[in-house]
Each structure stands twice: as C-alpha cells, then as structure tokens.
Write a structure and sequence with these properties.
2 domains; 5-stranded antiparallel β-sheet; 29% helix; 312 residues; Uridine Diphospho-n-acetylenolpyruvylglucosamine Reductase, domain 3
C-alpha cells in the first residue's frame, strides 16, 4: 500500500526547484526534513511520486533580523530555532514551541516551514492503509463519512502545528512563490482553510521562500502544549498568548479545529467571556487521545496560566 517515489530530484536553488516542480506539477512534492511527508507515505496517506529535495538551497536556511522583520528561512530546522540567540532572546515562545516538537532527532531534521505545513491529523486517518480499510475509509481518504462524528458533510481532522500558534499570534507573514514565478505575501493565519480534507490554500507546487515575523517592541508571548507524553506526541492542544505594547492580546489555538483558532482581545474582557468565545470558534471532536471535553476545559487552564505569566 506504500506509494513509492518514481523520481527523486535534488536541487540547489529556488529557480531549480520551481523548474522541477513545473515539469512534474501533478505528482511532485517538496522534501525538506521529511518527518511528516515520509510518515504519511508509509501509511499510504500521501501519493506523490516525484520528490524534489530542497535541502540544498542554502538561501532558505538563514535567520536574520532586518529593520521591521525577523526573517526565518523555511529550511531552518526546529533544533536551530531552539538554539538561535536572536530567537531565544527576542522570541522565546517560538523557541519553546519548536522545542516541544517530537524528539531531539526529529527536531534536528524537521524544518520550520514543514511544521507550518504539517498535515492535519485524526485518530481515524493517521493509521496504516489496512487499518483504515478495516474500520472504513473516512472523508480525508476518499470515504463518504467522518468516522469520528458519523457525519458526511465535514472533516474535523485537527491542525496540529506547534510553531504556527506562536507565529500567528505575532502576525507573521509568508512569502510564497508559485510555478509561474509570481511571488505573493500573505498572513500565515490566512493559509489555513478550515477544511480538514484540504486544510491549506497553498498547492503542492507553492514554495515558501520567507517567514516574516514583525519586530515589535515590548511584545511578550507564552506557549503551552498538551500531549500524552512530553516527547514524540503530536499536540492535543497548543496555545499561544501574546500581548503588545498597546495592550492588545492575541490568542491562537491549535489542536482544536481544522484550522488555527485566532482571537483578539484586551485585558478588559473577562476570562469567562473569553473562554466562551474561544470555544465557540473551536470545533473539537473525539478524534484525539484526549476527549473533546477535556481539551475544551484545558483551553481555560492554558489561557489563565498564560495570563498569569504575562502579568495580565
């Protein structure tokens, strides 16, 4: 049931990557760390047959601070994020989020760009092909029903990136290049669709060339993560709470919906009202190792802890 690659192309420049993708448009997949892509291939959840290895593009491996932005190359590994002096000093919540992913071995190969684009997860989808066939195919793998809910209208696989909540709460943008050579800049939060089957607006041929985090004076952030074990596990709930110099608070959740849950508020809104708003924007279902109700309860716990740490 494993879909083997029929073609492997190693490139050393953005131009070569775009050309290779253009030549293999319907079958190509970009390969960086491979920690998500290759696992999905072995489970039969990924059918791309042409792998374009972009790890040789050195221009996508840099972290710089220039004027109004921190620029993170999409091929920077999560391990590098956790150790980089600029990140540790000025965006420590991002270092915390990167450190929460997987194990040291995974973090040494997994990239920040790959983590932002990791595939939505569900207990009924992220299984071997024979397991899925025995239980019944779901909406995300060409079935006609959501196994978790019994409904036929929507897939509720969870968006599980850990670095995305922090970056979204900091109003991060992406530069994206397509096969026609057109480059566009979009807010990170806007690439997520809320559709569990097709969770991102980006196509498989789009290439992230820059992750741009605004430099904000006196902006502070806190990251929290719920998982069964502190290593290896994907998130069941991740939260990022940021407050800027003007008192605006931005809260982002992952693991509670097919897309990130994002809300803006300030210190005048009560925690009760804020909790209700966050839950209203979330659509968690019982497709995780933790129950839907437990994760909903933990949202308030994480927000309260974050507020306390930030002195709100």
């Amino acid at each position: 049931m494993i879909t083997a690659e029929k073609k492997y192309i190693k490139v050393t420049s953005i131009q070569e990557a775009i050309h290779a993708t253009k030549e293999n448009k319907t079958t190509s997949r970009y390969l960086a760390g491979g920690t998500d892509l290759m696992a999905n291939k072995f489970q039969g959840n990924e059918n791309g047959t042409c792998l374009i290895d972009i790890t040789g593009i050195d221009s996508l491996k840099k972290i710089t601070k220039e004027d109004a932005y921190y620029h993170l190359g999409p091929l920077v590994t999560l391990s590098e994020i956790t150790k980089h002096p600029i990140i540790k000093k000025e965006i420590p919540a991002l270092a915390d989020a990167a450190h929460s992913v997987g194990t040291p071995l995974i973090r040494s190969t997994a990239t920040i760009g790959g983590n932002l684009l990791c595939e939505n997860r569900c207990l009924f989808y992220n299984q071997s092909a024979w397991w899925r066939e025995a239980v019944g195919l779901c909406l995300k793998c060409n079935g006609d029903i959501c196994i978790a809910t019994g409904g036929a209208n929507a897939c509720f696989s969870e968006m599980v990136s850990d670095t995305a909540p922090v970056l979204i709460s900091l109003e991060t943008s992406l530069k994206i290049l397509n096969t026609t050579g057109e480059e566009k800049t979009v807010l990170l939060k806007d690439i997520y669709t809320g559709d569990g089957v097709k969770p991102r607006t980006l196509s498989t041929t789009d290439l992230i060339t820059d992750i741009m985090v605004p430099v904000k004076q006196n902006c502070r952030s806190v990251f929290r993560k719920l998982r069964l074990r502190e290593s290896l596990e994907f998130t069941s709930l991740s939260s990022a709470v940021s407050i800027d110099i003007n008192g605006k608070i931005r809260i982002t959740l992952a693991g509670m919906d097919p897309k990130p849950v994002y809300i803006e508020t300030d210190a005048n809104e009560s925690l009760d009202a804020l909790h209700k708003r966050l839950l209203k924007a979330s659509h968690p279902v019982n497709n995780d190792v933790f129950t839907r109700n437990y994760r909903r309860d933990m949202v308030r716990v994480f927000v309260e802890q974050s507020y306390k740490e930030l002195g709100i």
